[in-house]
């Protein structure tokens, strides 16, 4: 019984819980707070919802310590160190003073804690600031809106938002001052999209025209639980009368957005504080572990093993040591606590002690140091000017702080195309209407011009139109500062400080409206047709003729442009008052939302419908009625119109007159004839601008009406019945409008060709008309293919005329779908599909998506760096291939494998075939070539097609085939094929496929992958890749939000990877290796000592030094080096992308390097231990007087070791080293003088002071580091001399070029030689072969003076004797004098005679060549050629103005005086062929006057000579 | 996170502060400063490690080290040193009887055993002579041994005197009384007494005066070590304490000189400075040169008289007496000199090797290599 009741009670409880839970999880209902204001707090149904107070802090004062410690102990290392510190408190095993041993751990923990506190405090402050922002909230008692803090806002409150105010919470829009009941918001802070978004007042309140009264609001909002989907909001509002209205995301204003263009909006708070979508979307930065870190962790593990081995060794040693004395305990073997320990037991205890003593081997500060270094690296990447985009005023963002070094190890790049490689600036290029193509040649020319201008854009004086736009933009900016009480219309600012460029840029940024996109040159033929058409129409209208009499072609033309203009979601704003929509009419109409509405509007009598509606919606106020009436009354004969309305083809006078009236009211925007279009996608804007060029201008857009201005016809109002928005499954969008001229209901559709072409009405009949239509269809299809081949994006435009019945039928089902709460999307989709059938094709457009600046160069450089670039795009195959060619991803010389399969089997066969093909290709080539090429393809693969055919396979695969290929059974084959191709292009791929490809490559090939993209469709790919890079372009911020790094332009990837990646990797790799070395070296000192202290765990190094050595004395220099060291200068890295291989192959940190470092550490510690040992052998030295020199020696050795490893010494390096040493001595002095009785057991009183007076100390300090570092130094020297790595070679060169480079630093950007176009001129192998086989004589080593070629023969003939007098330093400068034929010819009209002595000189020179001296080295070092090559691409510091100064010193001076003034032409070998030709020509016909370029091999001699000195 | 996103928002529309200030902040572009530091263009020295560049360093090191080494070697060789092992483990040795005796019952207070060792100085020790005793196999650096002391007690702290530190265990208390000085180090104080006699050719002996002060560090003697309550009436001060277990006499009877008694006894201080290595020597006495003409120790025969107390057989240790003159670089140790010479030579040799390498290969990499 009892049990049963208990059970039932439980059951009940459970049920109630379930119930409440169920209620919780289902939805949230929001009531007006005002209704409950008088009740107690418990009765308010909104009480459970979070308030608007936000708290992003992690800790409170009380919880900080436990919570923070808990979090820190998630890191295993911290637990380890605390464990060891605690072990020290056990008397049996303790090695140090327990408190002291705790110090480093506490230090590390507190540093982290302080960082956390600081971050938390910043969060707290920003929270405070946000919480204390003001907002108007309705107060029941005072019956008005009062200022309240954000944090006081509750769910259910009514807030009044004014223009430019930030929305404090997620608010349901109930009222707007906008006559259309719209509210515009800018969501830039949420998704980065800068265009305005429309939000609509909840339907039932939209008709309400009186002031919204919160008191009277008694509806209940039911909506879903808070979630983080910004693009979804579902719910309904229940009115007192039981009526329900569906709510969508169009009704909600999200927290963090800004109200624009709307004077006032009122809404009820639905989600507040942490439950708002903005806050739910706010995730912290991502944590990824870099490859280097993973490798490091392996070595940390090895360190642990070494540690345990050492401890075990000591324990055994100690056991034996104790055992040898047997029972007779010697006086010095003090037993702990008076107990005698057996040898075994003491060995066990000692093991633990040794762990404490040797704990330093596991570097406690490693993790902290790495973090510091990474933060600084991120800082420097942020600060890089080259990664700053002036146009958008944005710089690179590192969103993941801890994978900077991964940037240096990338092997595969996966790139999106649109917006990443291309600018995503859509430019209308050409179109076809009714089967006729309009090529828009002028337009093409114009675009070409823009392309050229792009590079010099910076210097341009702003064009008039940009100037005019400046105003607009500055005024837009001024919005930010205008107090909100000011009317939104007074935003114009007088003093414009913004630069015109910036302005134009901003406008570009905000509205897809660069002049390039806007100024479309119309095709004269089409323009004429359009004009004809409009003229005819206007005539016909005036004559009252039926408009369908228009010829089908002309009607297609006009329909085509009308479709372009209205089939979109573009918002119009005037330039002077941006973000302020242009009002095109007075009349207020709501879009067709109900059947009644439809009936009302489409019934003959307008007046009755108006009265009907007013009676139907009792809420309609007097005001609106009056307005409606007045508008109707203003028209001359309402009745007549009403009668006419039903007659198709008759012109509606009322509309016309209305629109003509509007001209008067239209704002200044039209004065300069320019309206600003705000589009959600750049394609739309491009099309609207294109239509405008044909005088079919979009003039205004309202939810229910679109105004279009046409020539002769003036403004036409298209009644907008429905918009069926674009989605990726339908791939099209449609609008349903009522045509003002014909009064028909027309559906205009626009979409991808594949989507539209299938829906075109079939023409089964064989009559002429349908034949014609078919021809149009096939012609259009041809042109579409042509466009795609040109790399244009194609869109098809189609229309469909609906009968009233059809429409009514469709509308009914559509309205049902719209009001459905469940499966609404699906129903809407079906509804749209039902409508979009049997379309009539109007035409197609080709939009060009231009390549971003520097994309081909960047891809070339990345590829040279050994990176595989794959492009994954959703575009058509033809378009994609074309873009691939234009961005040099595919080469016309290379073969392209195209995989298009319809089935799994077909795909398998295709893959097999291609695999065979590839294999046969490999076999056909001589093995040595293929091997060699594979080895060295980084520099030569692309040079000559004959050598690189093997590597030059391109793979193109479409989405369908990709889906098959990604199948488990085929993926290996696919990878095998893809691997052997130089470039891979996947078209028509879905976001999921993109991520699958990345995942496949990453997991199967075990390579480092980088994905770069800009749109939402790239997010999954970005997240899957090891490094995700987002392009902060025009398509919003979703990709950026998901990325680890966000860059403004694709071309910045080059510097990010090649320079920063390389640096970050090499710095961090070296630092980690050094860390391991340093700790091992220090610990080994103690290890050796154990042999001399009976393995008792004694340490001759004072505890203080031991514990603070890592933390203080030796930490700064390594940090500075880890942050600032540069193995090769950035210029060199950019010039020679091959150096990136260094990181790809993990050459700085290979597994064996850890062991080499360990061995070196043990050797060095041997030196540091045994030299003092022998020096003090059998002397009266005491333990710590002996140990202190050892510490000092170790410090010196460690710092000098770092010195060997440091490649560049800036003053910071010096300062840190000096500081470290000074710190050590200062601490030692103070410590040794502070207390005579403290710090047992060392009690170091006056030790250091005494040592400083001992000559022995200094003698040791000199000798030991030398001995200790000799092997490493020697190794480095020998390796650097005999087997230098490419990086080392480059560095060697760098050094001599550096002084000269520094001159040009200031003008990096404009330096011609930095231009990627010009500096990749590798000496191709064939060329070299030619030379050697021809047995050409080359300048020998014995002749350091090189053939001097002045670039300007008239004055610059340098004879050899002169060159002797030139400073050795400048020899390399001298050596790179190049000849440029153009400049020679230009500057030398009299060259014939003038250059003769010079050429003679050459002849002489050549004749003196000694063939024996010419060393033909069989071991080809390609890097050497690069080195040579490098020099050839070095600029000459000459300026034509200073031709009379022949010596290098003068050149230097000249260069200094004309920084950056070197004309590109005179400083360059213009191409690789140029080099080759030049060489041949020089040697073959030295008397020729226009020697193109001479690069003497012996120029290196000069460098060698310099090195010798 | 929030902070950044919201501050951006604030810039974007929230009216804050005077228009002037906010304007200027808003116009601030994100453009990074073009400074050498931020653009990582700090002027830098780039050492290049190739044979050519480092050649001079090797030669310089060689040229500096070799003379230093020679100097050190000569100096070390000029130092005269004689070492007498008097452990007496072998029956033939003079002190065998004493060591044998101490083996039996060392704790029992017996009459001190005395033995004599004769030796001959073939060369006079001209300058001042330092007399050391040396122990080997004695692990004064054992971890627990090193710790086993109370510096406060030794510094004359009264409370530590009666309540020594725990570190002194198990030599902290004896018979319920605190040990002064406590700890294993003090307990194992070396307590042999060495006396040196010059043996005239006629067989008569004359004791050589041995100075026992000035052998400890000045700071130890005057700062670190202090008798509790000053130097007067040590007996009373130490009355509450007991002598270390192994000691024969209490600490206040170490010497009669009040300046060298109690904790400030220099023999004691020297012992308390624990040796670094298991084989060590400690300064025992000084033999000063009387005048400029006579050497400190003339050529001839000497006898070392040892009062043999200290047992070393337990750890197979050796006991030695060392007489040594001293130079600016300390005692006789040719190691440093040899090391310098060796390293110098090696460097010089390497320099030559590098020179050859440089000439042979150095140019190779920098000259244009022509592929086959």
Automatic annotation (TrEMBL), chain A:
The lineage of its organism: Eukaryota, Metazoa, Chordata, Craniata, Vertebrata. Pfam families: Cation_ATPase, PhoLip_ATPase_C, PhoLip_ATPase_N. One of its GO terms (biological process) is phospholipid translocation. This is Phospholipid-transporting ATPase. The active site is at 416 (4-aspartylphosphate intermediate). Residues 1-13, 460-473 have a biased composition (Basic and acidic residues). It is a multi-pass membrane protein. It comes from Erpetoichthys calabaricus. Mg(2+) binds at residues 416, 418, 1014, 1018. It is an enzyme of class 7 (translocase). It is found in: Endoplasmic reticulum membrane; Membrane. Residues 42-99 form the P-type ATPase N-terminal domain.
From TrEMBL, chain B:
One of its GO terms (cellular component) is transport vesicle membrane. GO terms for biological process: phospholipid translocation. This is Cell cycle control protein. Belongs to the CDC50/LEM3 family. It comes from Erpetoichthys calabaricus (Rope fish). Its main location: membrane. The chain crosses the membrane at residues 48-74, 335-357. It is found in: Apical cell membrane; Cytoplasmic vesicle, Secretory vesicle membrane; Golgi apparatus; Membrane.
